[in-house]
Amino acid sequence: MAFIIYFAIIILIPLFAQGKVKSTFNKYSKVASSTGMTGAQAARRILDDNGLYNVSVEEVQGHLSDHYDPRTKTVRLSTSNYHGHSLAGVAVAAHEVGHAIQDQQNYSFLRVRHALVPVANLGSNASWILIMIGIIASIPNLLLLGIVFMAAAVVFQLVTLPVEFNASSRAMNQVVSLGIIRNDEERDAKKVLNAAALTYVAAALVAVLELVRLVLMYTGMSRSND
């Protein structure tokens, strides 16, 4: 029964976070920003104000596929946010520019996250193969190796949290100080960014819970083999 409750929790947490993002974004994507600026215009305004003339703003296909690419110095905004005049679109665009500003200022957590990308990718791909073989074949050392790989991916998830929260904080400071949104719109813009951040919190929480469960499983397996 405990396992059923546990798996229900780790499934419901991400679903709740994703639902919160969708409902919040859908709500404020129907609210026009007071300045009438598109997401692309807001992004360009913030970039130029921070001297980031070398960072381009491009449209990308998909829904909420917005991201900043540090390799090409490009802020990519989904079609609705790129062309739209909504408060949600402006908030998301500003958030992605926040990452560009982090990149410019060599924000420490962003550098650490970039350094962890290859390790996290390897950990995500290899961990569950080793874990499943270790569990099925009752080989504690193989399970432990899988846990080590998984731990690298969990560290990446945890480092992502300050990166995302900091980008949102920078975004709010920029849109308010530059007059891209009015003071009375600030609360609603924060709701959009907080909902988006919730997905990262949920992912990190689930990853930590899974890691703890596997460590306990390894401990039990090791004792039974003694």
UniProtKB/TrEMBL annotation:
UniProt KW NADP keyword: no
**So where does this one cross the membrane?**
115-135, 142-163, 192-216
Check the record and name the Pfam families matching this protein: Zn_peptidase_2 (PF04298)
Q: Which UniProt keywords apply?
A: Membrane, Transmembrane, Transmembrane helix
Q: Is Transmembrane one of the keywords UniProt gives this record?
A: yes
Query: InterPro entries from the entry?
Result: Zn_peptidase_2
Q: What is this protein called?
A: Zinc metallopeptidase
